[in-house]
Write a structure and sequence with these properties.
Growth Hormone, Chain: A, 2 domains, 17 helices, about 0% strand, membrane, MFS transporter, transmembrane
Length: about 375
């Protein structure tokens, strides 16, 4: 029997957790001016999240399996909310950066625990839709964080960040109330970590799903990170370029929802992986070849929309890909680690190629799409 109340509480928590990422760009200039960081230093407040996940995603997943997904979820939310309050009150750069590191750890715990709890809360026929909904947490949360910009302008970044911190605290209480204690499996206390890792590697499917997610993020951040600069190089204004990037992010959230609905109607998630990867790669490559800014915007929006089929399909595939339900959290941690490694490494490579020629930026996008298609086909087999 499907219980939608826990799913809604976890989804709200995920969105508010991701809002702690989106809040930084909305206040980056203000914070940089207050602490004398400059743009590069202020941008470090964003990349600390990706660095934490790139280094510790699998470890956090193993820890979540040990303590249980519900405890991990609540611990991550509480840790993130407290760190967010600390960030809003930070008197200097060192404490602000430390608070962001702790926020990143809390967000990781939330992200690895949530899919298993959602899967345990819904009937098999509703799992695709539920995972499609969960797939929207990152783009929706980042958009919510960006929407704090008017509050930053009106009342200051500290007030805006404290508001988001209190909302995350409210989400913690909501999950503590609505998410039942009985649910996703916990790894046996005596299960050696090496044995869990061997089981994940032997299953192979979790590694393929992690590869799909990583290559998807090469394409997604290849668009998200460079679309404004690409449009400005074609003569678009800064405001219009930023608005186009926001529309593309919302289109990605919509693609996740469509993916969930299609899986609910019986479409195989591995087929969505192949179609989404192929379509996203071709249209993403067009962003850096077509010389018209309006066409470029349309291609970027379509690429992000069809690419949105992939995350929801991957989250739906994971519960059936692991040899034991207790290994779901480590598998999600592995996927998140690969995702953030791609997020760290791909933008500098694409940026270096784009500096030589925008058309060269298509090469890593097409290669990532090809690898995602091959991984999706192997999942089908």
């Amino acid at each position: 029997m499907t219980r939608w109340a826990p799913v809604a509480a976890i989804l709200a928590a995920g969105i508010l957790g991701a809002a702690q990422i989106g809040k930084v760009p909305a206040a980056m200039t203000t914070i940089g001016a207050e602490f004398g960081l400059g743009l590069a230093g202020a941008a470090l407040l964003v990349s600390l999240f990706a660095l934490m996940a790139a280094l510790g995603g699998l470890a956090i997943g193993l820890a979540a399996a040990r303590i249980g997904p519900r405890r991990a979820l609540l611990a991550g939310l509480a840790l993130g909310a407290l760190a967010a309050v600390g960030a809003a009150l930070a008197p200097n750069t060192a404490l602000l950066l430390l608070a962001r590191v702790v926020e990143g750890a809390g967000f990781l715990l939330l992200a690895v625990a949530a899919p298993g709890l959602i899967a345990a809360s819904v009937a098999a026929q509703d799992r695709g839709l539920a995972m499609g909904l969960w797939g929207t947490y990152m783009p929706a949360g980042i958009a919510l964080g960006l929407l704090s910009a008017p509050l930053v302008e009106a009342a200051g970044w500290r007030f805006a960040w404290m508001t988001l911190a209190l909302l995350l605290g409210a989400a913690t209480l909501s999950c503590w109330t609505l998410v039942p204690r009985a649910g996703a499996a916990t790894a046996p206390t005596g299960a050696p970590i090496q044995a869990q890792l061997r089981a994940l590697v032997a299953a192979r499917a979790p590694l393929r799903i992690a590869a799909v997610f990583a290559t998807y993020n090469v394409m997604y951040f290849g668009i998200a990170a460079f679309l404004p600069a690409r449009l400005e190089s074609l003569g678009a204004g800064t405001g219009g370029a930023g608005a186009a990037a926001a529309v593309a992010a919302l289109a990605n959230a919509g693609g996740n929802l469509v993916s969930g609905l299609l899986m609910g109607r019986g479409v195989a998630p591995d087929r969505l992986v192949v179609v989404g990867a192929l379509g996203m790669a071709v249209m993403a490559a067009g962003v850096y070849v077509v010389p018209d800014p309006f066409v470029v915007t349309g291609l970027a929006v379509l690429a992000c929309a069809i690419g949105g089929l992939l995350p929801a399909a991957c989250f739906a595939l994971l519960p059936r890909a692991v040899p034991s339900p207790a290994l779901l959290a480590p598998a999600v941690g592995l996927v998140i680690q690969g995702n953030n490694l791609a997020q760290l490494l791909a933008p500098p490579l694409i940026g270096a190629l784009a500096t030589l020629s925008w058309s060269l930026a298509t090469l890593p996008l097409l290669l990532a799409g090809l690898l995602a298609v091959l991984a999706g086909r192997s999942l089908a087999r």
